[in-house]
Design a protein that fits this description.
The protein is of the alpha+beta class. It is built from 11 helices and 38 strands. α4 packs parallel to α6 and α5 packs antiparallel against α6. The protein is globular. The two termini are 35 Å apart.
Length: 676
Amino acid sequence: YFFTQKLSWNNINKFPNTTFRWIGLDGSSVLTHMAPAETYSAQCRPGELINSVKKHKDVAYTNESLYLYGNGDGGGGPLRAMLERMRRMSNVDGLPRVKQAHPSEFYKKVESSARELVAWKGELYFELHRGTYTSQSNNKLWNRQSEFLLRDAELLSTVASLGAEHSDFAYPKEELTRLWKLVCLNQFHDVVPGSAINMVYRDSDKMYQDIISSAQSIRQSALASVYGAAVAGSPAQASGLAVLNTTGWVRSDIVAIPASQYAQFAGAAAVDSGRVQVRQSDGAVLVPVANVPGFALQQVGVDTDALRTVEHPASVTQVGDTYVLENRFVCVQFNGSGRITSFYDKREKRELVPAGAAGNVFELYDDVPGYWDAWDIEIYSQEKCTELPGTVVVVVDEGPLVASISVRVPISDGSELTQTISLAEHSPRLDFACDVDWHENRKCLKVAFTWDIYSDMATYETQYGVVQRPTHRNTSWDMAKFEVCGHKFADLSEFGYGVALLNDCKYGHSTLGNTMALSLLRAPKAPDEHCDMGRHKFRYALYPHAGTFSESNVVQEAYQFNTPLLELPISDPFASSVLKLRPFFSVSGARNVVLDAVKRAEDDERSFVVRLYEAYGGHARALLTSRLPFSRVCKVNLLEEPMDDGNGDGIEWLKHSTALEVPFKPFEVVSLRFTL
């Protein structure tokens, strides 16, 4: 069952239903009710009961509703006078009958007696509080980092505790549960939405430090257990470096090795030899790693003559006020303001920026909501903005592994943004790393990109799926979605081509026509007058791709942007044995299936749970293999309860192997419980 009354606060459209079936992305449905009294803190007065009848939009199907009373939003609950008024109004002519009951009694009666209910397919978009996608930027950054850190910690702890060769590792169930509870506590409103008082964020800062520190410690202990003596006790004892890929697919990347550590591996003269690329920002040596298998370890080759082996280098050139970042995939031109004036895909022979348009345009909006500062962004705020040009553009890294430029963007007398824009030799993805000193008053900073792409819909990531929303404002329902929520990416695609805008901690998006925008920072003054004041570091990226979103690998690229390869100092002669180990898990035969989580079962130390989902909206049959031992497997729900609909779960265990063939419906989440 699902209940809310929030949508009664919509500031543009009235939601048309009260009691209905809400159909989700995967086609499943839940019985949903929205209190027609349109409040969760009713005062037990006759007018409220009458409104429960007048505003009930589905009375033709069921004539009952829930009525929530008591002083809320700060505790308190029902008062004695409210209870007395309820008693007196329980059976009065002219008023609807009212009685005290548990909500489940209401829902069960609706299920058993209601005529066929109407259905609502897709998201229940809340037409208010759009500013909560952006307020308290650092809090949202740490939330994202905590989620991914705990994902890795659970995965590696499961492997360490159940792998036969390292069974002495004790799975830290109590500590992981404590950390997840802290993450969930901070996802309560009004914390992660950014609408709490200042004191709350000083508390949450400490909680996130605790979460990140403990999760990193768990991850490191698990790695030491999984790979044993091959993992060096300290960087000083290492004779080489390996990387671990905790995503479920093969990937390539560039790793940055501190100069002192690289000198330890290759000799002190190697760093200054001119035969390796040294990153200008911190002096780290850049080294390519290619085709790292999913859920597996691979050694990093320390080639002291690496630059000669780069077949297709990344480069940067400057001609007057034009700066060009180029590799074998794309050629990107920037003007003297740091804006993209051309983005050319070499493989597809396609120019992405329309004539006269630009990308990476910083826009500063007046952000003065009518009432709720930290909560709201209003549609009238979008009518005008100030575009902020960069004033200083300089070349930073010249390649061949990574080429980059730096752009300085003054925002006001008290605020400034510095941005490093990078292109690596192995990918068409263009990365933007921002460092902002922010001291504004009721302003909103966005970055916008205009593309030569025509589509009525843009695609935004949500949990275990995507939501498509209009890029036009034909109706009031379309217009209301001028600022929307998305997780790791937004994508704008037409037949044959698209561009994704990735991020590492941002959630506020907008797409109007062919212009995509990402909300970066706000400066509300209530309830926290210091909200977002100070220093911020965050990243976003552009990822062009052939085909529509459904034909792309945008989901995988967004995971990689948020989940860097883990670097492990290793010791010889033990490293050779662990480098030959098969991946912990592998998923093949269905590129639209993502393995998201691996954890120990909640109620059985001899079982573990693997959670996968279909990410693009299509059917699939995926082949899942595991290096961990198991004797049986069953499909479970999110509560880890066995699912048995009498028709079997469709999972086929291939004979004489540890491989399973698992069927998926569009956007289906599949949890499998393996038992030793």
